Amino acid sequence: MDLELVFLCALTFVIHLISTLAFAVRISGVRTRRIAISFSLFNVLVLVSRIANSFQGPFLAKRIEENIHAGLGQDMLSDFRWLLASAALATLVGAVLIPTFQRLFSSAVVHFQNHRSVPSLIGYAIRNSDWDGLKEMARLPTREILVGMKQSREVPLRVIAMNIGVSALWTIGVLASLYAGFINPDVRMTSSNLSAIINGVATIMMYVFVDPHMSLMTDDVMDNRMTEARFRRGIAWLVASRFVGTLLAQVLLVPATLLIVYVAERM
């Protein structure tokens, strides 16, 4: 693994870590009863993810171009495998960090509500980023959550299955379109713009099946129709299914790539 690939893996890690931590935002919103503020503040981190995303595509495309011109084909699939492994690792790390992050984020929400200033919040975070404070906030996922997941699913099996599919497809969408350009360089410009074939399906599944259910769960907690403990178990199932989806992405990468090549060749 060369330095450029390490950099690409790091970008992928950041993107998927932030996406996983988004689940903690719902927990923070429920605990602080400030759903809108929670999602608004999380957009600051989303900006970091999008910046990483904006660098990942061009750098990976450049790497593919160099391999095409050099006639090197045997190592590109392994590059994409490493990127997908980084996504899975980031999801796993994010899952472990959710209890800590939701406590830190809840503190940020309360501070923002009192001071109503993002720059003030950033300054507060910098001033209070000492090791002792982090240790006080740090928590690992509890055994009760894992035991509770076995006892009660809280999320319908179809939603879990959909979330696995969504996570897998979103993980490979852009990567498959770029890899398709490497498989058939003659249509690489067309292929690079066909990620919507994969991401479009994932988007429909997400916003028709998965996201409405998560929103209902959130509203049920706010209206006291669901306990926070049950809500956290539901989030745990969604995080676990996201991780499974990133693993499934390893299996779907090549079929998705060949599908994009097939479509690109016939356009």
TrEMBL record:
Coiled coil (residue ranges): none
Pathway(s) this gene product operates in, as recorded in its UniProt entry: Cell wall biogenesis; peptidoglycan biosynthesis
The keyword Transcription is annotated on this UniProt entry: no
A GO molecular function held by the record: lipid-linked peptidoglycan transporter activity
Membrane topology of this protein: Multi-pass membrane protein
Pfam families: Amj
Transmembrane spans: 6-28, 35-52, 82-101, 159-182, 194-214, 235-264
Main location class: membrane
Keyword set, alphabetical order: Cell membrane, Cell shape, Cell wall biogenesis/degradation, Membrane, Peptidoglycan synthesis, Transmembrane, Transmembrane helix, Transport
Location(s) in or outside the cell: Cell membrane
Family recorded in the similarity comment: Belongs to the Amj family.
HAMAP family per UniProt: Amj_flippase
Role, per record: Involved in peptidoglycan biosynthesis. Transports lipid-linked peptidoglycan precursors from the inner to the outer leaflet of the cytoplasmic membrane.
Protein name: Lipid II flippase Amj
Organism: Proteobacteria bacterium 228
